[in-house]
Amino acid sequence: MPFAEHHSEAIAPAENFRSLARVQTPEVGRTLARWLGGLGLLLLLAGFLPWTQNIRSNGQLTTLRPQDRPQTVPSTIGGRVARWHVREGQRVRKGDTLLTITEIKEKYFDPELLARTREQLEAKIAALEENRGKTAALGDQQDALRSGLAVSLDKARNKVSQARLKVNSDEADLRAAENDIAIATRQLARQEELYKQGLKSLTELEQRRLKFQESTAKRQGVENKLGVSRQELVNAQLELSSLQAEYQDKLAKSESDRRSAVAYQFDSEGQIAKLRNELANLSIRAGYYHIQAPQDGYVVRALKEGLGEIVKEGEDVVTVMPISPELAAELYVQPMDIPLLSVGRKVRLQFDGWPALVFTGWPGTSFGTFGGRVAVIDNIDSQGQYRILVTPDPDLEPWPAPLRVGSGVYGWALLDDVPIWYELWRQLNGFPPDFVGRPSDAKAKGGKIEKKADKPAEEY
Predict the structure, then answer these.
(1) Any bridge partners for residue 58, and if so which?
(2) CA distances from 182 to 6, 31, 146, 197, 213 (A)
(3) CATH number of the domain to which 255 belongs
(4) How many CB atoms are closer than 10 A to CB 28?
(5) By the 8 A CB rule, do 122 and 276 touch?
(6) Cβ distance 152 to 247 under 8 Å?
């Protein structure tokens, strides 16, 4: 047999040797190594993918405007519930009557109190008009007294002048009478001298004596008349003085009455103003018996139940939720994250009741989340956290219509884009997120946002 044939027959197949099969690399191992290598390469490449840094927070839905938030409607006055005009969940319009109350104060029990108060006011106004007429009459009376005083004074002065002229006339008559008696005295003396000498008769002497007696009597009469005239002059002067005092007393009394009337007039005007105020208060109070809806909305809950319950002044009776409120998400963040936020910063939100698949680092791939923007950042903290208000982003999909105020919400405030490897390195070292700048500093380029890094953030 040739050597070649003998050699080929001497070499056995490798499958016949079990030890040789055991030192060979298994096919499964080579496959696993290839998969692990590919997976490592993918992880290495994935480390350079962009990752959006974010700040997580939670809170609840509220409204941006205070007038859109649920409000309690109080009772302005105290009373007793007489009738409910609405039920819970009912839609009401502004001015609709929610419930009616009745009085519980005995001061307002009279059903005709408003009409009677109006009658009192009208009566007081009529009394005031009459008092004004009395005041005017007293003024006319004073004018008449002053006119009468002027006439009476002129008359009294004329009487004094007449008395003074009469006194002057009587004084002239007295001087004439004294001259006559002086002449008669001298004539009687001469006549007696002549009678003694026998030149005159006794008859002539007696005639001279009679003439002397007549002159003496005439002088006495003139003196008496002069005394009477002087007394009349004094009486006229006294009457002039008393007349002025008398009229002054009448004027003082009239002025006192006029001032009393004016004082009563002022007092009446004050009482009229008080009655008008009371009437206005009663009219306004009558409107408070019907508690009305302050704005369009839904009756959420009745805080007073049943009929006949006592409602205190200023006590809340019903809660009303406004229609179509401008919703906002009220989120709370840690103080260390506040410098990273600014008004206008984008936020992604997840609402209770809406299923969502969230990838916080890739907000574009998340499902069931909605966009928003930071509208308000509080300047003070609330129990160790700061409140921010987020409103819907007008450039993105609108928020769900069935959302209600008070439901829970979770938010992710979107910051800057960084590689995944950098985010892992930051998380492992506990470093804070990067902060580049404000949204207002960003410039749109090719559909992307490029933010400046040289401007500090504005504090709010």
Answers:
(1) 332, 410
(2) 227, 187, 53, 23, 12
(3) 1.10.287
(4) 8
(5) no
(6) yes
Q: Measure the CA–CA gap between 119 and 114, rounded to whole angstroms.
A: 9
Q: Count structural domains, the chain.
A: 4
Q: Mapped to the 3 state alphabet, what secondary structure does 211-275 carry?
A: HHHHHHHHHHHHHHHHHHHHHHHHHHHHHHHHHHHHHHHHHHHHHHHHHHHHHHHHHHHHHHHHH
Q: Are 456 and 342 in contact (CB under 8 A)?
A: no
Q: Can you tell me the distance from the alpha carbon of 392 to that of 356, in angstroms, rounded to the nearest whole number?
A: 18
Residue 456 lies inside a defined structural domain of this protein? no
Q: Which residues pair with 205 in a beta bridge?
A: none
Query: Whole-structure pTM over 0.70, yes or no?
Result: no
Say if residue 364's pLDDT is above 50. Answer: yes
Q: Is the pLDDT of residue 401 over 60?
A: yes
> 27 or 441: whose pLDDT is higher?
27
Note whether 411 and 329 are within 8 A (CB).
yes
Max Cα distance, the chain (Å): 257
Which CATH number is 82's domain given? 2.40.50.100
**Domain span at 423:** 52-68+325-451
Tokens (6 digits) for 192: 């007696």
**44 SS3 class:** helix
Spatial contact of 193 and 134, defined as CB atoms under 8 Å apart: no
